[in-house]
Task: structure prediction
Amino acid sequence: MGLGNPGPSYAGNRHNAGFMVVDVLAERMGGRFRSHRSRAEVVEGRLSGVRVVLAKPRSFMNESGGPVRGLCDFFKVPVERLVVVHDELDIPFGAVRLKAGGGDNGHNGLRSVTRSLGSREYPRVRFGVGRPPGRMDAAAFVLRDFSAAERKYLDLEVGRAADAVEALVTEGLVAAQNVFHAG
Result:
């Protein structure tokens, strides 16, 4: 499940890193997103031989929980098998960190997902977007597009995050952490 905001005006925002990652995964699977009744866009298929459902909620980030819950219920996905991909302010740009469970760290999308699922014990792939410069408001920062300097490396870093999701799904959390936390 990639988190982000729907619509072209948000497409390049830091807050849409989760959408960017699942877009790469869908491309690798040769799939196209289609509308689902759970208020999300979905692609069903195989990723490195493992059956997966990739999704992007059509709701705004702060209301992601409803579509996530709807998808988990429809596809009968237990919380521990859900993978949420999202932007993370406390990680430098492009760095990828994986974890299972934990708090929302002020991320309203995660807060909504946790509230809707009644659990915070879902795996996460966190894509670093760095801290806002100076005294800039964090909410304003994540709703801005990546800088020109960041865009030079964005495709590479989003691809690495997609690799991390693939490793998590196929090899498990600890194995994926050993690879992606090493650098």
The CA atoms of residues 164 and 179 lie 8 Å apart. Strands lie at 34-36, 40-47, 50-57, 84-88, 96-100, 123-128.
